[in-house]
Amino acid sequence: MSAASIDGILLFVVVVVLLHTPALLGQKLANDKADLDTLKFVHALWRHGDRTPSKMIPSDQTNTLDKWKAKFGGLGQLTDDGARQHFNLGRLLRHRYDDFFSCTFTPEQFVYRSSDYNRTKMSAIANLQGLFSPDSQKGPKMPLEENAPKGLELCFLPQGHDPIVFDDVECPAASKAEDELFSSDGFKKEEKKNAKLLTFLGQKSQYGQVPHPLRRIYYVHDPLNSINAHKKDGFVLPDWVNETMRQEIMRLYNLKNSFNYKVDVIKRLWSGPLFTEILDRMDSIVSGNYKGKEKLHAYSGHDGSIAGLLAILDIYPEVFPTYANALLLELHQPQTRKGAYSRGSRSASSDNSEPFVRLYHKNTTEGVTLFELQIPNCGPPCTLKKLRETRKAFIIEVPQWKEECEGSKKKDKQTAWSSCGSLFSSVKSLGCADGCYVKSESCFMFLGRRYLCC
Asked: PANTHER family of this UniProt entry (predicted)?
């Protein structure tokens, strides 16, 4: 069956999704500059930049693994386009926080946390280059690993052991909830509606399942998305994928992902630890108990990192986060003079000195536009106290997360958590501050959270 003839069997009219301006309630164009009268701290969370595919379509004999290796070094690797995207995001951060951040890189002011993937680490370095490069520099200096700012401590835990920056960490309870979700009547109904298209994709991709499971649409979407982005580099879409088909696959991808974070237990176990860490840090800052000196705490993560945190905040974009999407959570503290409201306070409050949070979203890959998002059921202003109260169901410290994940399947196995004590002692001997853990002699992980050692 050709790509042209498939148009006749589609059950849905192709809906053109506004990729560059997804509609969200409470969304408005943000000011270019942050309100420095009240700004105290910035958390940033982003998805890595453009990368090579992480999967290969079995039937594709043109875009081979050797071809991806020769051009970009293999699968799942940050491309030059991805580095440029994060360089530009760094420029956006410089423009917004120019008088808040130092003009030169000072390690104590900036903490960068990453998942243990090359693409997220390199995205962080490209981002930093953009943040501190002169105006005359038009793009990132390559190779990135040789041009990282001096003194940078890029923090990460080994793959499979990091519940903070969304990772493929083992959590049986969350996996069970996902199995139930994708076996639900609602999800099965969508699979049935799209059965002919999924059958076509199963036959053409040759993954071995016909129809191709909607739950696994990523396996088709991911390689095709990368091929389409790199046609200029000699990669070619299969003859069964025309633009109509590509848009339909994207629709299925966003449809499947719209189910991902609608279940509270999934939000709690996949994204609760990150939300809790951010919330606790903001509480420590306003109480004066925070020991860190940084002004920015950045997380270099994945699409699920952003989608999960937004879901906890009851925000569900139509389009799953694309490359170089970013969230900025600003902590603001109004001035304390009675009866005076600073420019940062968006409405009168019973206590005009109460700290509040503002949320911003960069929802495109190439653009530099920020949107301010109103957090549902929280303001404005969304005070820190109100945010904690309304999202208390998703507050979970790592020891509790471990217990809930394991449930009745508790095992006595050696993991990063059980071996953390020896790592901590080795860091102490190097004179690192509390909350610092070492992965190797050349890599430090500044986490600022004692709970990571069990």
From this structure: ACID PHOSPHATASE 5-RELATED, ACID PHOSPHATASE-RELATED
Q: How far apart are CA 168 and CA 178, in angstroms?
A: 14
- In angstroms, rounded to a whole number, what is the distance separating the alpha carbons of residues 289 and 160? 31
Which burial class, exposed, middle or buried, applies to 127 when counting CB atoms under 10 A from its CB (0-12, 13-18, 19+)? buried
Are 356 and 383 spatial neighbours (Cβ–Cβ below 8 Å)?
A: yes
List, in order, residues 6 or more apart from 74 with CB less than 8 Å away: 52, 65, 68
Question: How many other β-carbons are positioned within 10 Å of the β-carbon of residue 440?
Answer: 8
Query: What token pair was written down for 319?
Result: 């389009």
211 upstream amide cis, omega within 30 of 0: yes
**How many Cα atoms sit within 13 Å of 5 on the Cβ side?**
4
206 pLDDT exceeds 90? yes
Which tokens hold the place of 296?
Answer: 């920015």
Tell me the three state secondary structure of residue 59.
coil
Residue tagged 């038009």 (tokens): 138
Q: Which amino acid is at 11?
A: L
Burial of 365 (0-12, 13-18, 19+ CB in 10 A): buried
> Strand 110-114 and strand 296-301: pairing?
parallel
Q: d(Cα 239, Cα 205) in Å, to the nearest integer?
A: 12
Decide: 312 and 265 in contact? Cβ < 8 Å. no
The more confidently predicted of residues 159 and 391 is 391
CA dist 368 → 21, 51, 97, 150, 211 (Å)? 12, 19, 14, 27, 39
Instruction: Give the tens place of pLDDT for each residue, 167-179.
Output: 789 999 999 999 9
For residues 159 and 117, the answer to whether their CB atoms sit within 8 Å is yes
Dihedral sign (CA 143, 144, 149, 153):
negative
Polymer length in residues for the chain = 454
CA 300 centroid distance within chain? 7
Q: Which amino acid is at 310?
A: L
**Residue 45, phi then psi, degrees to nearest 5:** -135, 125
Confidence of residue 337 (pLDDT cuts 50, 70, 90): low
Secondary structure tally for the chain: helices H, strands E: 14, 11
Q: 139, 86, 23: which is closest to 301 by C-alpha?
A: 86
Q: What percentage of the chain reaches a pLDDT higher than 90?
A: 76
